[in-house]
Amino acid sequence: MRQRTRAWPRSGSALAANPRPGARYAAAAVLTPSLWHHADFLKLWTGQTVSEFGSVVTRTAVPLVALLVLGAGPWELAVLVIVTSAGILLVGLVAGAWVDRLRRRPLLIWDDLIRAVLLLSIPIAYALGALRIEQLYVVMFLESCLGALFDAAYPAYVPTLIGRDRLVEGNSKLAISSSIAEIGGPGVAGTLVQLVSAPFAILVDAVSFIASAASLALIRAPEQPRPPRETTTRIAHEIVEGLRVVRRHAIVFPLAARSVPGHVFGAFYGVLYSIYLLRELHLDPFLLGIVISAGGVGSLVGSLFASRVVKAIGIGRALVTTAIAASALGVLTPLAQGPVALATLMVFLPQLIGDGLQTIEGVAEISLIQGVVPDRILGRVNATLDVVSHGLAYPLGALVAAFIAEQIGVRGAIAVGWAGMALSILFVVFSPVPRLRSASDFLAAERVDAGPARAR
């Protein structure tokens, strides 16, 4: 079972602020039988697939630049993690407010282009013999800031392109992008590092950002201007509104409450998983790669079946059922022992099947939230949840994981991580989410509740 992550940032608000559900998104209904026949969606999907692939390469290559080229030690690697989280923490909430003020597609295009320039500076400095660890810190901090902006704007833009009725299908297909990247990206990254060195491998990600920007620029469907604000408010007040919406929303709050401990305890896997497999279970690096790659294969299968599962059993039940099933299967990881073949099988199954289940859960979750959130506040809530999950919870979990591993050992810490993620599901189980067949169920109930209130 992988560490708890989200398919995309989340969002939520009360319908009373926007009583006409049809006015939430500017996109007209998509009439094609499949989004694979939707020209603009295909452009979006192609660009994001290329970008996801490049990002996996950079995720692999940047630590190798620090280790192999700049001679970094544990402290320097820790600072790299810290500056990445700091970018999300410092910029995320402000980015969300900008996303709700401006059209999303131009933001996404410029974000991609600026990140391409930032990453290009690494191989250029290396070629000139001027690359330093301080430059790596600055680039990764700024890239993280821009990533926070992109992660607030991207899931807010998708509904405007394909409409609410096709969100599950669209998110399922977009999840295929990250699955493909997870399967092939690490191997390609390793090969590039061997052939051309780690700094030049990062060129792939820079080019991928340019490709993503181009695909967004080629989309022909016009994005409607943001509605004029009725009053002029300070950005701090808009940020507070986003925080308040998350806290009060009947659907989003339990998902957010689950996400925070999910990321805290999921970080245990992010920090300790490779150490656990190599040192405790005595897998060799080849078997480690096979196990981790199985997660990408499982995720790909899950993304292919996500839409069918949601349609068959309903969005709320799909979300909760797959989360519980993945957690139940995940207990095999801390219990793994015995001969290497048996231990490998016990960690292989949670990766292959568990990651597939988690992908279905993620598609259901982001589709549900996009479906119940007014467009006017979508970016702010996306950013709020990104900050609390990736800016606060995940780095905190990494520190706690290291401390607990020192006290009770790596296996014990992995068990604590599994238990924490499993218990976090209770926030969703005892909420209105499991009863929802679709996002429209919640909207309909909200309109019924709002009717008597307006009559009074």
Give a description of the structure.
- By secondary structure, this protein is mostly helical.
- It folds into two domains: 29-226, MFS general substrate transporter like domains (Growth Hormone, Chain: A); 234-456, MFS general substrate transporter like domains (Growth Hormone, Chain: A, Up-down Bundle).
- Helix content is 78%, strand content 0%.
- The protein contains 17 helices and no strands.
- It has helices at 39-69, 74-101, 104-127, 133-162, 167-196, 198-201, 203-217, 235-248, 252-280, 285-313, 315-330, 332-335, 340-372, 378-408, 410-424, 426-429, 439-455.
- Helix 3 (104-127) packs antiparallel against helix 7 (203-217), helix 5 (167-196) packs antiparallel against helix 10 (285-313) and helix 14 (378-408) packs antiparallel against helix 15.
- The longest helix has 33 residues, at 340-372.
- It starts with 38 loop residues before the first helix and ends with a helix.
Describe the secondary-structure layout.
Elements: H1 39-69, H2 74-101, H3 104-127, H4 133-162, H5 167-196, H6 198-201, H7 203-217, H8 235-248, H9 252-280, H10 285-313, H11 315-330, H12 332-335, H13 340-372, H14 378-408, H15 410-424, H16 426-429, H17 439-455
Q: Quick check: average pLDDT?
A: 84
- SS summary, helix count: 17
- Looking at the overall shape, the CATH architecture of the largest domain is Up-down Bundle
Order of helices and strands: HHHHHHHHHHHHHHHHH
Q: What level of helicity do the residues show?
A: over 70%
Class of secondary structure makeup = mainly alpha
Q: What is the overall silhouette?
A: globular
Number of domains: 2
Sheet with the most strands?
none
The CATH superfamily label of the largest domain reads MFS general substrate transporter like domains
Number of strands: 0
What fraction strand? under 5%
Tell me the name of the CATH class of the largest domain: Mainly Alpha
Give unreliable regions as ranges: 4-29
Rg estimate, integer Å: 22 Å
Tell me the CATH topology of the largest domain: Growth Hormone, Chain: A
End-to-end separation:
51 Å
